[in-house]
Design goal:
This protein is mainly alpha-helical and 266 residues long. The protein is built from 14 helices and no strands. The chain has two domains: 78 residues, no CATH class; 170 residues, no CATH class.
Length: 266
């Protein structure tokens, strides 16, 4: 297990990932005292400083309760194309889809998510390259922004969605600074990113080396549903994302002309 000192001193992204993996090694490898097998050897190699292999990360992700794409990002590795969003151009519509969905009642959000999941899967035409990508550092801030890019959220889209769904209200430029590693992550930021990414806040804090002063409250239902919708929308083409956003806007009806900020708990 990591100690209080481990969690209180600064980590780069790789250090934080290894500390977290050490705490969770029993999930992906035999417990101490049992005969070591291939999985245990993989974990030992990563803890010793080696990069994890692609197949290991794909196997570990379900057991660790994370999406495989996120685990690749958190481990500091390139995300394979088959785990990436289908169409980077969908980033133009995904924020509006999520923000309109957040203003719907619970049943409306459920219906919209079901509709997005029902859309046919189109073929991938090119490797995924985020639109309006910003230079990212290798540290925790860069990895959080990269995880959002792999949900088709540009800095502007991220600024808008977090403002609607959480108390965090920052400019798009500020998210660029976070991604470049020039702004320190705060407990508030980590908690709100966790809600948007659909990751338990304590786990994301450990993965980024940020200490939370108190156990965070569970995310609001709107934020939890937004995280699920963001993930489901990764499989959409730009045309499908535009269609889904139009459906969400239509479901809002006359109230769609404006967005409220910090919507959960209203």
């Amino acid at each position: 297990m990591s100690t209080a000192a481990d969690r209180s001193r600064p980590h780069d992204g790789s250090d934080a990932f290894r500390v977290w993996l050490r705490d969770h090694r029993g999930i992906v490898a035999p417990e101490p005292g049992r005969r070591a097998g291939p999985a245990d050897e993989e974990v030992r190699a990563v803890l010793a400083g080696e990069h994890p292999g692609e197949e290991a990360l794909r196997r570990w992700a379900p057991a660790l309760g994370l999406h495989a794409a996120d685990l690749f990002v958190l481990a500091g590795l390139a995300v394979p194309d088959d785990l990436a969003p289908l169409d980077a151009a969908a980033a133009r519509c995904v924020p509006h889809l999520v923000m309109d969905a957040a203003h719907l009642p619970a049943e409306g959000r459920r219906q919209l998510l079901s509709h997005v999941r029902s859309l046919p899967q189109a073929d991938r035409r090119s490797p995924f390259v985020p639109e309006r990508a910003v230079p990212l550092a290798e540290g925790p801030g860069g990895r959080l922004i990269r995880m959002c890019q792999y949900r088709n959220l540009s800095p502007t889209g991220l600024a808008h969605t977090l403002a609607v769904l959480t108390p965090t209200y920052l400019s798009a430029a500020t998210y660029g600074v976070i991604g470049a590693g020039r702004k320190e992550l705060t407990p508030r930021l980590v908690t709100d990113f966790a809600a948007l990414l659909g990751i338990e806040a304590g786990e994301l804090a450990a993965l980024t080396g940020v200490v939370l002063p108190a156990p965070p409250r569970p995310p609001a239902p709107e934020a939890a549903d937004a995280a699920a919708l963001l993930w489901a929308a990764r499989r959409l083409s730009a045309a499908q994302a535009r269609h889904a956003a139009e459906v969400a806007s239509s479901m809002r009806g006359a109230s769609r002309a404006e967005y409220r900020v910090n919507l959960p708990g209203r």
